[in-house]
């Protein structure tokens, strides 16, 4: 397919590269020039990239970024044509997405929200899981692209529900991870080594994918960003905003947000979100250690 890929960050660059490797004809654009993907044509604006494409795929930071890529100067809107499909793999506001979709559809094009779960490694390996909102016949057309970048996709309903479900997923990751590192910190303070605790966690009902994935990084003290703190902070805020709009109270997430506020104030925004453990350690005056590190 002829695909325009907009946004070559940690996720976008690998996703675009996997589209190229699967034989799609890809044109890329990134706000800051100089980022390229082997085998792809580089465009000077979103409008230029979108021109003549069947699919326009976005993966940028946040709601404002998507708005500007779509409707800003030389945005995608300039090149929208009947039947073009606009796909958003960023994680942004579900309610804003519904508005963006309305504006795109008014021009006869289609809109699909398709945020992903699985971080940098899954993007590199083409094993992302897509969480999709949109019409079934449109999603059907995207299958060759989805297969190039991911291993599975789940349709959550109409436009906006992909982002809604993504926020619901990341809410759980943030709260589960906070529980895990609070446990490690208290354990350390009480003299229980993290390496000794982990086999117990994994043998019991406390085990989880979050713990399984993050524990080795925590024990190695490797906080290079797979999923940067600033993006998890953004998703927590998006979930709290969506909860406010829906008049739902999320007490645990509200408290976890405070931890991320402090982490970002402390300059940890570009570390992996796993680095929130370093705040707990600072407050406890101890460092978590594990034999299996
Ligand atoms: P990164 O690595 O922080 O990349 C963010 C990308 O978004 C990068 O290409 C940025 O371009 C681009 N960006 C940021 N703001 C804008 C604006 N205003 N206009 C256009 N482009 C912009 O994030 P990830 O790849 O890890 O994640 C992307 C999304 O997927 C995010 O929503 C996650 O939560 C999930 P730059 O190079 O800075 O010019």
General description of the model:
By secondary structure, the chain is α/β, with parallel strands linked by helices. 51% of the residues lie in helices and 14% in strands. It is built from twelve helices and nine strands. The strands form two sheets. The protein has a six-stranded parallel sheet with strand order 3-2-1-4-5-6, with helices on both faces. The chain has a three-stranded mixed sheet with strand order 7-8-9. It starts with a strand and ends in a 9-residue tail after the last helix. The structure holds ligand NA7. Ligand NA7 binds at residues 7-12, 30-32, 59-62, 64-65, 68-69, 90-91, 231.
Provide the low-confidence segments as ranges.
none
CATH architecture of the largest domain: 3-Layer(aba) Sandwich
> Counting H and I runs of at least 4 residues, what is the number of helices?
12
What portion of residues belong to β-strands?
Answer: 5-15%
The secondary-structure class comes to alpha/beta
Task: Chart the SSEs and their pairings.
Blueprint: E1 2-6, H1 10-21, E2 25-29, E3 41-42, H2 46-50, E4 55-58, H3 63-71, E5 85-88, H4 94-105, E6 110-113, E7 116-117, H5 120-125, E8 128-133, H6 136-149, E9 150-157, H7 161-189, H8 194-203, H9 209-220, H10 229-245, H11 251-265, H12 277-284
The structure holds ligand NA7.
């Amino acid at each position: 397919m002829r695909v325009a890929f907009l946004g070559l960050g940690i996720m976008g660059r690998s996703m675009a590269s996997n589209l190229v490797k699967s034989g799609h004809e890809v044109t890329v654009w990134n706000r800051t020039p100089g980022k390229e993907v082997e085998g792809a044509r580089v465009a000077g604006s979103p409008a230029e990239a979108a021109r003549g494409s069947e699919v326009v795929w976005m993966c940028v930071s946040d709601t404002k970024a998507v708005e500007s890529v779509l409707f800003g100067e030389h945005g995608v809107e300039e090149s929208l044509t009947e039947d073009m499909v606009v796909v958003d793999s960023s994680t942004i506001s579900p309610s804003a997405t519904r508005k963006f979709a309305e504006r795109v559809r008014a021009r006869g094009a289609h809109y699909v929200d398709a945020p992903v779960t699985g971080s940098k490694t899954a993007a590199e390996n083409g094993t992302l899981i897509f969480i999709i909102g949109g019409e079934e016949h449109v999603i059907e057309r995207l299958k060759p692209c989805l297969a190039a970048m991911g291993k599975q996709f789940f349709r959550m309903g109409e436009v906006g529900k992909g982002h809604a479900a993504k926020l619901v997923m990341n809410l759980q990751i943030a709260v589960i991870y906070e529980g895990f590192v609070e446990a490690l910190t208290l354990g350390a303070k009480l003299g229980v080594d993290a390496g000794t605790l982990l086999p117990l966690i994994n043998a019991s009902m406390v085990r989880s994918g979050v713990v399984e994935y993050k524990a080795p990084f925590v024990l190695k003290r490797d906080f290079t960003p797979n999923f940067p703190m600033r993006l998890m902070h953004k998703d927590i805020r998006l979930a709290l905003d969506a909860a406010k709009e829906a008049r739902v109270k999320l007490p645990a997430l509200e408290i976890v947000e405070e931890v991320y506020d402090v982490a970002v104030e402390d300059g940890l925004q570009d570390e992996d979100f796993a680095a929130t453990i370093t705040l707990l350690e600072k407050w406890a005056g101890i460092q978590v250690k594990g034999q299996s590190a």
